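Methods: example folding runs. The two proteins below were folded one after another, and each record is reproduced exactly as written to the output file, sequence line first and structure-token line second.
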Amino acid sequence: MPSLLLHSWKRVRQHGRRRSPHRSEDVREVQNYLNPGAEHWLDWFHITMRLTVLSQQAKGFRETKAKLMEEVTKSLERIKHFLWHGNVYQAMQEIDGLDLDLDGQEGAEKLAKGVQELSIYVRNNQGFIPNFGERYRQGENVSTAFVESTVNQVVSKRMVKRQQMQWSLRAAHLLLQIRTGVLDGKLEDTFRRWYPNFRPNAATPVEAVSAA
């Protein structure tokens, strides 16, 4: 997998991205190169996490600047609503307005920085923000948070020293490569390349009928 990514990165850099100053653009090109027919979009979980952090920071003004806290909270709710429905333009308008409101506000420097980072994040990924609401209504996935949580729990448990079957970093890395090979259907071909005498390819139904 690392060698494949490195090869893809080099191919991307050779085809029109050599002068690109934005590394994130190169990463997107690598994704498209590896899976040209795939649909790439942001995970809703990561968007909401950023908004949740900003909401928590705004609550710190409850006693000193209650009005500011109320305005920021309402603005963040509108931003979340726009992003949920894939309306990036309105979301950016709201983010820029919030940024102006926080400019020069004493004690709100950290919150203002967070809003600016959110603006950069949304602007750089605006092409990968779908209509999450529509996807959800159609029964499609909008987040893989449950998968990430499961992976973190399994890896954390296996990396604990008190665990009888403790993983090393190298073993965990190799196991993930094997699992990836199983999921994308390439593990058997890899074994066959390493060991030419490995079992032959299973005949397809059409080949089986022809042979009969």
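Second run, written to the same file directly after the first:
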Amino acid sequence: MKAILLLPFATLAVSGCASRSAAKLQCRYAFSNETYAVTAGAPQKLNAKHAGEGPAWVAETNRLLYVGDDRISTYHPSSGSSDFRNPVTGANGLLIDHNGRILCTEAGNRIVTRTDSNGNLTPIAQSFNSKAFNSPNDLSIDSKGRIYFTDPRYGKRDSIEQKDSSGIPIEGVYRIDTDGSIHRILDRSSVDRPNGILVSPDEKYLFVADNNNSQGGTRKLWRFHLNPDGSVDPKTRHLLFDWKTSRGPDGLKIDRRGRLFVAAGLNRDNLPDETTKPYPGGVYVLSSSGRLVDFIPIPDDEVTNCAFGGPDLKTLFITAGGNLWSVPLKEPGLGINR
């Protein structure tokens, strides 16, 4: 069975599906008269609790870490889920660094932390210019061990301390160098409300998911040139995809072909701020140039993030609405710490 989805999503033609709802989960999508389906089966909901965000595969122990409900949880395909660290106030993004340590953006605590194999917890980013961060959200890392993270603020804004000289809040992007120094590499002149972030495998680009969920806010995926010293030239900003009035891009990953897997969209209107049309909730697969080549529909709101996992890295784990989903892939993802 096949569904043809033409850009923009104004027309959806479904063939062989009993209903539009069934089509969302069971149909393959074709774009621009070409088929690029990346999945080898339908998404399945797993028996895992508290799956709000931040999936990260730990190859050494064949398990997935993820966050939600103020905790870090672990999921193993044979034994299900359990708490790894509880509580973690506002835990959001997770990453395994090059030494196997767990990096976590703790939005509620307004810090970034690192946990080693012995369980020792170390804050590695607590403030910038002696001011507290907004709510660290997502993070990525390069081959030199430099960590990049986003610092938006969703919800109440009265406690924001990061502001420009005019007193306007800055929701920026930061880099933590290996010596512990912290640098702001993008500010409000380049991004609106940065959420997901990713360093490309060749380290030539930095992808930033700009997702302001207020009415009229930015919902775009940007690509910036990343310099060898870890700096970014704002003038190189390039638009890859725009979710318009729907829920914008959240977490993202990249596969061996350079295709971007981006959690975005919405299945139920959140008016007046976000709409289900033109982009429903799921994982959007984009080419390196930003062309939409496939779509993996997930019925739970909100679809927040994804990660490649499994022994062969041919499983995509997806966090959505507090639930953990998986979908088999035809080709493996990248087994890199990104």
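Comment on the second run: DSSP finds one helix and 30 strands in the chain.
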